[in-house]
Amino acid sequence: MGAGTIVLLVAAIQAKEAKCCKGIEININGVNNNFFVDKNDILNHLIAIEKTNPVGKPIGSFNLRRLETELEKDIWVKGAELFFDNNEVLQVMVEEREPIARVFSTGGTTFYVDNDLTMLPLSEKFSARLPVFTGFPSDKKVLSAADSTLLSDIRMLSLAIQEDSFYMALIEQVDINLNRQFEFIPKLGNQIIVFGNASNISEKLRKLKLFYQEVMVKAGWSNYSVINVEYKNQVIAKIRGAEDVKADSLRALQIMQVIVDRAQKNSSDSLQTMMKDNERNSVDSSMIQQSIQRDDNVEPPNTNEKPIPQVVPTVQSVTKPAVKDVQKKLDKSLPVKKETEQPKAVMKKKNDYTPIP
Asked: What CA–CA distance (Å, rounded) separates 77 from 79?
């Protein structure tokens, strides 16, 4: 009886393998409304592996284990299972990877991450509506221990945000600062929400939701510039404008100091200019003596009119001792001119001199 049973089983298997594949049925699981790989992709992949259409081929010619391995090489395929049912139909069960967050690195790359912390590329077919994290410090395929821990924190925080539609509607993106802590940028308002690390996520989100429901609706969406929920049993909010007034006052003091410095500089420049002008326009005794000698040689104009009697000063009118006295006084009071600088003669009219009776 045992031998007969074995013979019957072998005959049944051989008979089934001799039959041909009548069709292919593909089922994709693991994704909620996000299809980064579809049935046509799986079918085309099977055709590429078999190098022909599987339908019509003998069942015995299929290497199901090899087909599963090749399908799992697709980054979006988490697992695959293939078998033939009693109707000679090839059943293809595919579990697709489901992204839970979109991450932007500091190097400029972007990728999805799934629940297994697998870094997934973007898809041309579908863009998932997920929490966005920016400032991830690495874009390498093999992460360091610290980066892996940070990616695990991103997974926990992203899943917690997706559990409540309020957080999904509130949070525009999550920034990762230099201390590897999280800051929320809300869609409504222009404040920053300091979240801290990934510890006590549920408690922090609960405090944030309570603050928005009880305080923000009364104070206004733009009344606070910073909301901090990282400390236990408290929410710290900074009123907008207090730091702005301090910054404006400091800026005003800086501007006033610049104005004072410029005024002092301009005053110094003006004084230097006046001193230079005095040196350039100063008159010494030699200029006076040259002027007197030049006026002594001037002849009265030759006209037909009757000349008006006037007295023309001569050299005898101003004696040499008088000129020397004037020269001594001027030499003491006026700055000494450089020898290389030639003095300019000053022309004076005849009427500038007082007639000597």
From this structure: 6
DSSP 254-268: HHHHHHHHHHHHHHH
Question: For tokens 């579990």, what's the residue?
Answer: 95
User: Which long-range contacts link 290-293 to residues 24+ away (Cβ below 8 Å)?
Assistant: 290/345, 291/345, 291/346, 291/347, 291/348, 292/318, 292/323
Residue 218 DSSP class: H
- pLDDT tens-digit profile, the chain (357 residues): 777 666 556 555 555 556 889 999 999 988 766 678 888 999 999 999 988 888 888 888 889 999 999 999 999 999 999 999 988 899 999 999 999 999 999 998 999 999 999 999 998 878 888 999 999 999 888 899 999 999 999 999 999 999 999 999 999 999 999 999 999 999 988 899 999 999 999 999 999 999 999 888 888 888 899 999 999 889 999 988 755 545 445 555 666 676 677 777 666 655 454 444 444 444 444 544 444 444 444 444 454 444 444 444 433 444 444 445 545 544 554 455 444 444 444 444 444 444 444
pTM (predicted TM-score): 0.62
Question: Which residues, 6+ apart, have CB-to-CB distance to 45 below 8 Å?
Answer: 70, 71, 74
Q: How many other C-beta atoms are found inside a 10 Å radius of the C-beta of residue 91?
A: 15
Residue 183 to residue 194: CA distance in whole angstroms: 5
DSSP code at position 27? E
DSSP of 97-123, one letter per residue?
--EEEEEEETTS-EEEEETT--EE---
Going from the C-alpha of 114 to that of each of 69, 117, 128, 212, 318, the distances in angstroms are 20, 5, 12, 30, 112
Tell me which DSSP letter residue 92 carries: E
